[in-house]
Amino acid sequence: MGEDTHDQAHGIGRRALFVTGAAAALTLGSVSFAAADGQRQETRTAHGTLPPGSPDFVYVPVEVPAGVREIKVSYTYDKPSVPAGTQGNALDIGLFDERGTELGGRGFRGWSGGARTEFFVRADDATPGYLPGPVREGTWHVALGPYTVAPQGLAYELTITLTYGEAGETPRPVYPPSRAKGRGRAWYRGDCHLHSWHSDGRRTPAQIAALARAAGLDFIHSSDHNTNSSHPHWADEAGDDLLIMLGEEVTTRNGHVLALGTTPGTFVDWRYRARDNRWARFARDIRRAGGLVVPAHPHATCVGCGWKFGFAEADAVEVWNGPFTPDDEVTLADWDNLLVASVRQGRDWLPAMGNSDAHRDPDTVGMPQTVVLADDLTREAIQEGIRAGRSYVAESKNVTLALTVTGGRGQQAGIGERLTLAADTPVTVRLEVSGAPRCSVRFVTDQGVLFTSDPLPVSGTGTVEWRTTPAYAAYVRAELRHEAAAGPVPGPPAALTNPVFLTAA
Prior knowledge:
By secondary structure, this protein is mainly beta. The chain has 5 helices and 31 strands.
C-alpha cells in the first residue's frame, strides 16, 4: 500500500498540567510527515495517556507537507471498568486546519464529538461533521476533547494517514431558501432542535425532512453539535411546504445553546466555560449572524448539559425538550420564576419554546413542537414570533389552542401580548382547546396555579374560562396537562403557552 508508519508517544506530566491549569487547552508535540517523495500514502501513529483533570481540549499538531489530497484520522481509547457512580472515559475528536486553533478563528474543519471513530477531509468531500476544502501545507491540529476521564487515566491512539495527489474541486455550497409558501399571518408549527448524521444523530437530512412533513411541521431548524457541516445538505429537502432554518447546537462544558437561524455557513465556537467570560462575545456573534440565542434543556442531568451561563444573553429558553421529564418540570418552574422577576423589575421577559431534540429512532420529530404566530413563513418572521413570545408548545400537530384575555371595553390580548387596564378591572381568561382528550387546563399566574379545570371530554375539545383582575394577576399563562398517574403531582403537559401580561394602569 506504500505506507510508511511511525509511532510517536505523547504524555502529559504533572508539570504540564500545572503550567496550563488556568487554560482550557494544551498542545502536545507535533506529528511530522515527510514530503511525498513518490509515495501515495503515509501513516503516522501517535499515542499517549490523559490523566484525570486534563484540560478540556488537547491539541495534537500535524505537520502537513505540500501535495496532500486527503487527510484521514482514526482513533481508539481505552474504557476501563470504574467504580459505581464514577465517570468512565469518553473522548471527543475534531480537526483544525493550518489557519490555527484560535477561539472563534477560521481554522475549524470539523467536529464529530464521540459519534465517530474516524473521519476524512479533502477538497471535494468530507465525512459528515467535517468541511470539505483544500488540504493546504502547514500545521494542522487534531483536537481531542476528554469529556470525562476515568481514575486510571485515558490511554488513546491516533492514526493519521495522508494521501498525496491532485486535489479535487471544492463544491460551491447551496443553501435552502429563507422563505417558504406561507399563509400570511398565521400560526406555524416547527421543531428547532434536530440532529442529523452530521453530529451524533443517525438520520440524514432527507429522512428528517420526511418525518417533519409527517408531523405536520411548517418549519424545522438544523442544530447539529458544534459544526455547520450540514448547512449545504438541506437545500434539496426544503420546499414550498417546509421552511428549513440553519444553525448549530453550541455544546460547551457548561451547557448547550441553540444558535437558531443564523446566516447559512455560520460557525459558532464552543470551546469555553462560564468561568472564562467568553460567552457574551459568542452570543453577540450569534445575533450578528441573524440568529437567536436559546439555551437548550437548561436543567438536563447529563455531564456538561446544565446551563451555567445565566440568561442575560438569551432571546428565548427551551423549557420542554423531547418527552417531558422531571428536569423539564424543573426548567418550567425556573422559567416561571424568571417571569415573576421580569414583572417585579419591569424588564423584558424571556419567552419559552419546546423542541424534540430528536437524534434517531424512536425519537419523534415534532414532539414537542413550537407553534408560532408569524407574519409569514420566513426565517425572519418565525424568529420575530419566537422572540416576541407569540407562541405555545404542543406535544403534536393534533393539539391546537387559543388563549385570549378580554376586559374593560372589549380590549383583548393574546399570547405574548400585554393588556393595560385599571387595577380592579375584571378580565376574562379564555382557552379554546382541541386534540387533548381527558386533559385538564391550569391557569398559572405570578402567584402560581390559581385555577384547574375538570378534565376535557374524550373528544379533546372544549373551552375553559376564568376571571381575574390586573391587581390579582400580573400575567396569565395556560398549561394543558394529561391525567396524573397518582397523587398531587401533575401529569405531563399536552401543551403550554407563553403568558399574556396584565398591567395595572
